Amino acid sequence: MEALNLMPEILFYIISGMVLVSSVMVVASRNPITSAIFLVVDLFFVAALYASLGADFTAAVQVLVYAGAIVVLFVFVIMLLNLKPEALRGFRFTVGEALVLLITLTGFVIIATELAHAPPDIASPGNLGAAAIELAGGNTFVVGMRMFTAFLWPFEIASVLILLAIVACVMVAKKDKKSGLKGHIQSSGGN
User: Fold this and answer.
1) Does the pLDDT of residue 122 top 70, yes or no?
2) pLDDT classification of 177: cutoffs 50, 70, 90
3) Up-side HSE of residue 94: CA atoms within 13 Å toward CB?
4) Are residues 184 and 119 in the same domain?
5) In the listed set 85, 119, 136, which residue is the last one of a domain according to the structure?
6) pTM over 0.85
7) Measuring CA to CA, which residue among 150, 146, 142 is closest to residue 114?
8) DSSP labels, 122-143
């Protein structure tokens, strides 16, 4: 009988493990299209985590917005860049890219520190049962209020990290354009 009481917890840990495995495969895969497919799998598992926690709206948004629209955009950019396998083998970090990576990792450490040292009433969901959520105006209202009041600082840091990721992508794309242009000029003999 006790095993049935632990079933939601066991399911949570299984899905969390699958999120970790698929996340590692996104980073470890050498083929960009395969990485994008693992990203879709990862986002579906994250949506399953949200659904298992009773956040059905967030799970639906996760599937529609991220697994649907954002990954399609990623695949479009990957196909637009037309990366060849030999170009992927010689990838090296520049000083600017290493600096962006360092700033991003520092941001993650700041977020983790802020959440670890947050007061207990902010770090825990509190009284967010079904009746309390309905009384407060519904799930979307409660999520919005918590995000923009109690979790404003992590939300703003996440937006800065997304901005850093966009800047890093632009830097990588400009570097590839410059090296491709130099190769074209050298192969044509400068004419």
Assistant:
1) no
2) low
3) 10
4) yes
5) 85
6) no
7) 150
8) HHS--S--HHHHHHHT-HHHHH
Q: Is the pLDDT of residue 45 over 60?
A: yes
The pLDDT of 137-159, averaged and rounded, is 76
Q: Which long-range contacts (CB under 8 A, 24 or more apart) does 112-118 make?
A: 114/153, 114/154, 114/157, 115/154
For residue 165, the enclosing domain spans 92-191
Backbone phi and psi for residue 52, each to the nearest 5 degrees, phi listed first: -70, -25
Residue 115 shares a structural domain with residue 135: yes
103 and 190 both lie in a single domain: yes
> What average pLDDT score do residues 53-63 get?
82
Neighbours of 50 (CB within 10 A): 19
Q: How far apart are the C-alpha atoms of 35 and 89, rounded to whole Å?
A: 16
Residues 96, 182: one domain?
yes
* 65 and 124 housed in the same domain: no
